[in-house]
Amino acid sequence: MTPGAAMAATMKVLLAAALGGALAAVAHAADDKTDPAHLAGVMAAAKLELGDLLLAGGIDAAGTDAALAFYARVSASAAPGAIVAVMPPSGFASGAKAQPDPDRALTLYADALSAGQTDALLRLGDLYSDGRAITADLAKAFDYYQRAAAAGSTTAELRVGQMYALGRGTQQDVAKGRAIVGDLARKDNVAALELLGDLLTQPAAGPVDPKGAIDAYERAAALGQVDSLVRLGNLFHEAVLLPPDEARAFGYYQRAMDAGSDAGKIRVGELLVRGLGVPADPARGLALVESVAATGNSDALNLLGDIYSGDTATSVTVDLAKAFDDYSKAAAQGSNQGKLRVGEMLVRGQGVAPDRTRGLQLMAGVAASGDARAYLALGNILTDTTLPQTDAAAAVTAYRHAAELGASDAYLLLGDLLSDGKLLPAQLPVAFGYYEKAAATGSQTAKLRVGQMTALGQGTAKRFEDGVRIVQEVADTGSLPALLLLGDLLVGPDAPTPDVNRALAAYEKAGSLGDLDAWLRLGDIYRDGTLVPLDGDKAAFYYLKATAAATPGVPRDVSK
Fold it and tell me: How far is residue 463's CA from residue 471's CA, in Å, rounded to a whole number?
């Protein structure tokens, strides 16, 4: 290429860059050659960018039509193999917020893909994976991610690893999923390091490894991934996998805030308000959270709602009207949590005039987006007997949807609703089945219900010893309800032979752990003299223990 030709080619590249964004990158052919694929590539890139705008509500239907018409004219008039630069789709946007159009975006992504734009594979995978804009199809999402990974997308490779580890859209293979993510993490890919930490803290993704997660997050943070500092703070604040360490959590959140993280600032504010890990300073904490909320951050707005509604225990005076206003602002930003809380407060008439119909509609709308938490909340409010109206049948439907979406708590709630006979006729066999499902997910409360119903023959064949054995297993974990139930079963009318000594031991242990009812039962046993010889002194002794347990300031040790 001659110096003059090189200069001409350079000027074309600069012109293309001036005309817009990612589309400029395709203007690269030398002046002395044509590129038959160039025009198709430009149009595919334009459709990809146009799809992004449609999905984000950055362009309306009229602007989209105008852009597509313009690109069609360019395609029809361009000479074969011509090197062109076109105005990007954003040039056709009015600037006003538009209604997102995921269906049209999907079509444009598909068109871009058919023209060879492999970046569309990741977009399509994301659309089918999150299920917010269109109906989720995890198998289809996994296929798109695999194809994008094969085309060289590291992000898609991480998505594939994550879906293998969680068994989403494909057969679960924890080892394979973690290996894919781990390989990228060892190359100091910060997104991989953070995802590895996430997988190591999720029971659904295999055995948890809190220490390994801390290491991954620390490495990501050292490489500039500020969100990993927030995740580290969450590990010690939420204390699900590790003992609570609020001071350490505050330190991580403070570092994240200092690095410019709004999430870190919100958490620092929360801990200051609550006095966790740091001396309480509600005024400063609220000021920090309010400063982030002022930018429209829905997490900050929801936290303010939690504080002023009293849902989060603080010394701040409850102000339901302000809580409703904060939740409403979060809802206006598209926050499902905000919408859910607005719906609940409308139904309950908290901080706003009651409007059950509108409130339930809001909650149902969030639930219909695939939010298991919303289905649980909907079921709970439909069975709340403190409200003027209940709808237990609709609650059953809501809980079933929640269970289908992976909320194991829903099985326990279904069991309770169908066993107590308060809002619906009891269906003990069905309730027993739900309790078994909840127990299989690790619910000790459900396991206790299974043991009780097995021992008493409720909803299943009566097998007293098997039921007692199940209850004993829960009692061995130190569960107060299980210890109390164990004692009741062992000396109750269904026991083939009362086992008084074992029952007394269960009650003693429950009482020593703070259960008032256990001391009362022991007092009753010695007062009645049916199971043991009547002993007024022992009865009085245990009643005094019950009094001490129920009365603040009374010494617990009444033996002296």
Answer: 12
| DSSP sequence for 116-174 | T-THHHHHHHHHHHH-SSS---HHHHHHHHHHHHHTT-HHHHHHHHHHHHHTSSS---H
Summarised one tens digit per residue, pLDDT across range 77-131 is 766 666 666 788 999 998 898 999 999 999 999 999 988 888 999 999 999 998 7
Q: Please, are residues 44 and 94 in contact by the beta-carbon 8 Å criterion?
A: no
CB atoms under 10 Å from CB of 477, counted, come to: 10
Please answer whether residues 338 and 298 qualify as being in contact, where contact means their C-beta atoms are separated by less than 8 angstroms: yes
Please tell me the predicted confidence (pLDDT) of residue 555: 46
Which residue in this structure is represented by tokens 């590129």?
A: 35
Per-residue model confidence (pLDDT) at position 36: 57
Asked whether 57 and 99 are in contact (CB, 8 A), the reply is: yes
Residue ranges with strand state E in 161-222:
none
- Whether 176 shows a pLDDT value over 70: the answer reads yes
Residue 100 one-letter amino acid? P
Q: Which residue has the tokens 């313009």?
A: 70
**Sign of the C-alpha dihedral computed for residues 205, 209, 213 and 215 taken in this order:** negative
> DSSP state, 255?
H
Q: What is the mean pLDDT of the chain?
A: 90
Residue 13: per-residue pLDDT: 36
Closest CA to 44 of 108, 104, 124: 108
pLDDT, average across residues 320-342: 97
> What pLDDT was estimated at residue 42?
84
Contacts 24+ apart (CB under 8 A), 485-491: 485/448, 485/451, 485/452, 487/518, 487/521, 488/521, 489/452, 489/455, 489/464, 491/525, 491/531
The secondary structure of 300-317, three-state, reads: HHHHHHHHHHCCCCCCCC
Using left for φ > 0, alpha for ψ between -120 and 50, and beta otherwise, residue 318 falls in: beta
The rounded Cα 418 to chain-centroid distance in angstroms is 27
pLDDT 10s digits, 355-400: 999 999 999 999 998 899 999 999 999 999 999 999 999 999 999 9
List alpha helices for 383-427, DSSP H: 392-404, 409-419
Q: Which residue blocks in 239-297 are alpha helix, DSSP H?
A: 246-258, 262-274, 282-293
Which residue, 116, 74, 67, is CA-closest to 88?
Answer: 67
pLDDT at 245: 96
Which of 406 and 492 is assigned the larger pLDDT?
492
39: closest CA among 71, 73, 82, 69? 82
Tell me the HSE value of 99 on the side-chain side, using a 13 A CA sphere: 5
> What is the pLDDT, as a whole number, of residue 84?
63
Q: Taking Cα atoms as reference points, which of 283, 281, 350 lies closest to residue 320?
A: 350
pLDDT at 389: 96
**Cα distances (angstroms) measured from residue 427 to each of 304, 412, 418, 447:** 42, 14, 5, 18
523 touches 542 (CB < 8 A)? yes
